[in-house]
Structure formats: C-alpha cells, structure tokens
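Supplementary Methods, section 5.1.

A reviewer requested that the exact input to the structure prediction be made available. We therefore reproduce it here, unchanged from the version used in the analyses.
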Amino acid sequence: MKLNQNKPLARSKNIVVQELENEILLYDLKIDRAFCLNQTSATVWQSCDGTKTIAEISDLIGKKLKTRIDEE
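The structure derived from this sequence is encoded token-by-token as follows.
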C-alpha cells in the first residue's frame, strides 16, 4: 500500500495511548520511551489519520488556537 505523503498517518502499532483531559500520553514499545503531548501536539497527532492534508491539519490547529498556523 502506498501512503500519500501529503496526508500524514500517525503510527498505531507498538504504541500505547492514554488520553487525559488536556494531553495525551504515548508509550512507544519499540524504543521503550514515553511522550507527553500537550493539547496542541495532541490535536496534531489525532488529526494525522491519513485522510487530512497537512494544510487541513494546519487550518484545524489555527482555528482551535485562534491564530494563523503555517504548514511548515
């Protein structure tokens, strides 16, 4: 299966996800490391579902934060 590079897809294998009120905790089983995503990072990660383009994700984050977000 060829992935579209313009529609990012968050990894779902070998990862444990714990959603909290304002953040997401990720535990990567491959590298035995934990990550805590703040609300903004969590929104980006959740938006990487393989259906949204980078531009759509940028727009979504910008609306949520009420500011313009550059794709870069």
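The first helix runs from residue 39 to 47. These observations are discussed further in the main text.
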